[in-house]
Hints:
The complex is a heterodimer of chains A (501) and B (159). Chain A is of the alpha/beta class and 501 residues long. Chain A is built from 15 helices and 21 strands.
Amino acid sequence: MILTSNTPEFLIERNKERCIHCQVCVRQCANKAHYFDEEDGKVDSIDINCVNCHRCVCLCPTKAITVRKFPLEFRENSNWTPAVMRGIYKQAETGGILLSGMGNDRPYPIYWDHLLLNASQVTNPSIDPLRKPMELKTFIGRKPEKLDFDQQGRLITPLNCQLELDLPIMFSAMSFGSISLNAIKSLARAAVELGTFYNTGEGGLHQDLYSYGSNTIVQVASGRFGVHPQYFNAGAAIEIKIGQGAKPGIGGHLPGEKVGLEVSKTRMIPEGSDAISPAPHHDIYSIEDLRQLIYSLKEATRYAKPVFVKIAAVHNVAAIASGIARAGADAIVIDGFRGGTGAAPLRTRDSVGIPIELALAAVDDRLRQESIRGQVSVIAAGSIRNSSDVVKAIALGADAVYVASAALISLGCHMCQKCYTGKCNWGIATQDPHLTKRLNPEIGCQRAVNLLRAWEHEIKELLGGMGINAIESLRGNRLMLRGIGLSDRELEILGIGAAGQ
Amino acid sequence: MNLNMNKSSKRVEAREEHCIGCGLCQVHCITAHSRYPHDIVKAFKRQSPRPVARVRLEEARPVSFAMQCRHCDDPKCVKGCITGAMTKDSETGVVTNQEDRCVGCWTCILACPFGAITREETEKKVAAKCDLCGARETPACVEHCPNGALKLVERRGGK
């Protein structure tokens, strides 16, 4: 087909005064948006190939490159926007499902930005974290109903297995396949250094990662890729993935292009084959079935490792979470609809699921009403962007949060949303050996550690401001939150007062 | 002269596993050896012909690394030099070419087992090679490598 209505999304502007035609941009662009004209000895661009990942912009030694929105205007129309029309053109040419990477980017309300935190004034002193101890240690797992002690004051109540976190933030599930081994190594090393955990996603555990086992959460998803007894026992906890915020209701997608030798060995699937996980687990059609899997996994690991169950935030999430708690999970992970992914059908990503803030509040409320909140830890995921989001999530009722998009951004991700193409210029969401080299795990680890250390300082400052010296005292403490610009119904679901109250 | 008795020996080591083949080492090497060592644009646009890069990017994707003078303990280029222009500093261990003494016979180029010497023809024909950026604390290539693929290593006591 010769006729195409596809037009460039971005315009590459090259400052001719500054460009020295060194070809760094040409060598760095896996999308071939830059080329060198041998005859003229000049570098030039092909705008339609540009995905606006900023790799060339950041590496250009003379800062000669800018990327802009392509200035081509469509006739103004609030209904038939350029994005809608471009989707139709693409489907008219390919007949395929539209894919996207990373989380929902639609302008739905972001409730974090409508929540305000409290601070102490006069009647209760605020605390200065630089001068006084401040505790962020968090334990994930089932807590006892009550504690019994013998006559010498020694604890006699048996405690369930717990994960001990130095700060209430973990790196959430990203599989080897969706991201590069160097990206996983960066996060694994960072988790070790920070005293927290990273998650394998459903990609299995590469041989090189077994040494980070005590900081690893191993995932069991519907595809059961790379799942075997050694895998369970290597990890510190096991996560059953029922759903994911970016694409609730469907399983993981890994295109065959990304299934090279190492991914194939780790996932135990043929090289080059698409790894399409089934939408449901074929052995789970009820809470009772889920309970069987939870206890099978507990048996397999001699009840020494907590079992998490991860679900996407959807309608009725509170009732589902209650079922999961009763099925015996040690922790429930709720993944909101802005959660990232390596590949998701665009329409699913943008239209399925609900915001994590509302889901988290609803789940915490329901578990409290049923007096089973202590039986499980609640982990909030799905676009925790900064330290104040973490604090607000914990005040809404989370025990800890998972971060993935923010962690990848710390490694260099620029949110171009092209993870599914396998051509990530930052060496993150790719398996091309030329591209994966771009992420040096030593540098990656340092950047991820820096990010969470910075958040740790900020969390302590925010807690201190509220007059709280332990994260435990903030957990579910919604009195510390007020809503701004929210309806009565939203305030009611969030269980908070309005600003000014 | 026993060159192994040097007080120190510095060289730039390439880490192949981290080299991304961007070529920034060459851009910054050219700039550092130009008349405008702090202005890339001027170095490339005002000086013609511009100096050659003393570091070479070797690439057969996905393998790539930047190669420059190894500042050998027993440098063949110094032995081969017919004018005594190429010397190894007994203090720092750095092998440098004194351009005013170099006559451009290219014996050093033939002698170098690493192919780390090139021809510089900006003013007079001389041999050009990595001088570890002379007065700079960190060579320009090491300083500007975006992925930690070049490291300046210093070994005390010769070997």
